[in-house]
Amino acid sequence: MMSGEFLFLVLLAVHAVSACKGASTLLRQLLPGSTPMVEVKINGVPRQLLLDSGSADTYLFTDEVTCLDGNVSVPSTVCQLGDLYGGAITPLDGLIFRQVYGGPGSLTEVSGVYAYATVEVAGVVLDKQIVAFANRTDTGQIHTGASGILGLAPRRDEAIYSTENPPRNSSNAYNVSLDYPTVFESMDARQLVEPFFSIAMENAVRGGYLTFGGLPEISFNRTFATAPLASPIDESRQYQIGVDSLNLVGNVSNNTFTAIVDTGTTVCFLPEQLATAINRAFDPPGEYDNQTGQFETSCTAAQPKVEATIGGVRFPFTQSMLVPKNFSDLSQGCTSMYAPQQPGGVIILGSSFLNNVVAVFDVGKEEMRFARHDYAALV
Question: Membrane-spanning regions, if any (predicted)?
């Protein structure tokens, strides 16, 4: 029989190993270049939710959802949602959910109610976790094939409002919103995981890995670059960091800027002059589409060599930055994932950048860390 002290040390060692490995789960993508999805169980019901480090609320669509095309109700299939939730819901009195996703010129509004639920993701179970149940959305295509969103941004980005003081307009009035612990914050507060999570996207149908409180158990370059968050986590709505530079390889111009790291945005929104220069370097050159606000070119175009420098470490964009406009007919051309920053918009390093790295969102240390995938060799 082991002594009490020895047993304590054994349990402590087991806990340390568990904390190092964390709680991990697979990501998947419906199509190359699409936002990754993760399985989340809500009250025991498994659903595929979009993984979004750029928003905080976790929600899923109910089987009573109204799909709107403008102000006209249309069949829910038009909104291209995934499996809907049909379980019982007891809404929290006096609270409403209303959020707008997307950017200038392409917005999707989602609204509904809040309720307590049992949430399970990556094997971590949270009882009495507040989540939103969406019963109204429009035909924007951000949810294609998904049943909702797993929000991993800081809670200041939440869209929970009192029915006595609702948002004033569709752009959201963040100054009147309330807040609550997000799914990840609850994991941390209940000491179920260490205060960070990591994402290893792999630009494939499998999608990669999401790990809470640890690193993914895959092969990757273990040299990490560190970038502090631009503002304290309790004052932040996004994970925003400083980028030393982002350039065409061989171009020594100093493009220093701050950027949001967002798994829920597929493209990289860059300063207009930089995005234009990169897209003109495709062969054949990319042509700007005024309707979409992005560049387009042939799906067989030769792609320029581009790299970002963060925390003094170089990160090449080695994965394809072209996404077909129609996967069944490549002759229609491809859209470039290097997009110019829109008026009133922000600079974003989206999932097309994250496909090249293992990214650590360290809330405890208020920093982000990045390491290159093995396949993302320097050029």
Answer: none
